[in-house]
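Hi again,

Forgot to attach this to my earlier email, sorry! This is the prediction with adenosine-5'-triphosphate bound. I've pasted everything inline since the attachment limit keeps bouncing my files.
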Amino acid sequence: MSVPALEVRDLSFSYPDGTAVLHSVDFHVHPGERVALLGPNGAGKTTLILHLNGIFSSSSGSVTVAGLPATEENIHEIRRRTGLVFQDPDDQLFMPTVRQDVAFGPANFGVQGAELDDRVRDALEAVGMLEVADRPPHHLSLGQRRRVAVATVLAMQPEILVLDEPSSNLDPASRHELAHILEALDITMLMVTHDLPYALELCERSLVINNGRIVADGPTSTILGDRELMRANRLELPYGFDPSFIRPGRT
Amino acid sequence: MRATHVHALYVHGTGRVRALEAHVKVAAMVAFVLAVVATPREAFWAFGIQAVLLIGAAAAARIPAGFLLRRLVVLIPFVLFALFLPLFGGGPRTQVFGFALSVEGLWGAWTILAKATLGVTASIVMAATTEVPDILLGLDRLRVPRLITAIAGFMIRYLDVTLGEMHRMRIAMMSRGYNPRWIWQNRALANSAGALFIRSYERGERVYQAMAARGYQGQMPVLSRELTRPGSWLQALAFPAFAWMAAVAAIIAT
Ligand SMILES: Nc1ncnc2c1ncn2[C@@H]1O[C@H](COP(=O)(O)OP(=O)(O)OP(=O)(O)O)[C@@H](O)[C@H]1O
Ligand SMILES: [Mg+2]
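Structure tokens for the complex follow:
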């Protein structure tokens, strides 16, 4: 089999105050796969994805991105390969204009001049936000800011795109537009979400995490259809939503 | 969140002054302030010329007068201090409206007021036309050590972030019926300072994580290739140059 795009082995982590959050987390994602990471509030999803590019590092266990272990000396390259889209776009967009914000990432990796301009244009084009390039991010709607946040990461041309609750707080139209954009990207994806229909639409595979442990791993439609598993992990489908009647977006 | 990404001193807009490169503006501002400091206190006319230059710059930058005046409240401590000098200063006295005031104190008060007003106004004009990352990039180009520009950048951002959080906490309190009129009645707000600190600290941490995730290593990347346009230095430095002429003429005359 090919080199996994992402490999997490036996990862455990506690916060400095002693809260143990991750317990021997073990999974891998293959190139081109789209994986949803499901789990209740406080399960450790955000903590886990902050490990994927070395923001947090743990003494026990390992993270490998496209064959490159996430160690101190690789950290810079790991960050280029893993595009992390944070839950709150206000945390992610800190430059005065959209254009500068999108350029920030690639510029940190030494991209300059015409190539930098191209990267910025392509990334903004991919999320349909080219026309707001010179506006300040705080003048945009939440849906637009979320799309720009995706662009800031695409501009780095990562191998894997990691999104923390991309659909949260979006109105149904913006949620749908974002799904279209993510669908069109040809990239490996790991998506944290509480929005189960979104997971079914966008990800063929799902991981369920609870209390810092991976408790299920399988096709999204199978997982959403397993009532026992769903109830045990506080996963709740929207009223009237029956996954067995819905054709998954990807299989 | 609205107000938190552009700093409170910045005025949106376009125009000639805004188009100047940040480091050119910073250099012009510093040169202007030095000229003000060097001007002898007796040379009222020289301060007049410098004030006119400054008003001209503010007008060219299209900074509303009200905005400028409101920002000048930072001068209040200086003003209060300056008022005490003539009352309690030593030396010979002079009669002003029936008060015996210290001559040396009057000069002291005048010097503080004139120089502080000019200096602070110059910085406000600069800050109102330059966005934070540009100021930092400008300082960088002027060879200010990176550590200092990075610390300054974080201080400014934490300040903005904190103001935003404070605003939201106030709204949350007011919508639950708490409505303090004056700042010293604001017990609840004072009590919530701790919560505010934690909240802004955590936001700052998340912003930093987002920066690190995109390869930030403690140094703002250079985003624009644009070199300084040759005309820029000439345009920007004309402003302190006239201020210096006034200062030098005043030094020679006194
Ligand atoms: N800085 C911190 N210090 C100590 N404990 C923390 C810290 N951040 C999070 N935790 C704890 O770690 C656990 C996992 O938090 P995490 O944010 O990873 O959950 P999550 O799965 O992303 O939840 P949500 O769905 O609410 O976003 C929680 O119990 C939380 O209280
Ligand atoms: Mg989370």
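Confidence is low (pLDDT under 50) at residues 1-5 of chain B. Residues A 15, 17, 19, 21, 39, 41-47 surround adenosine-5'-triphosphate (ligand 1) (CB under 6 Å).

That should be everything now.

G.
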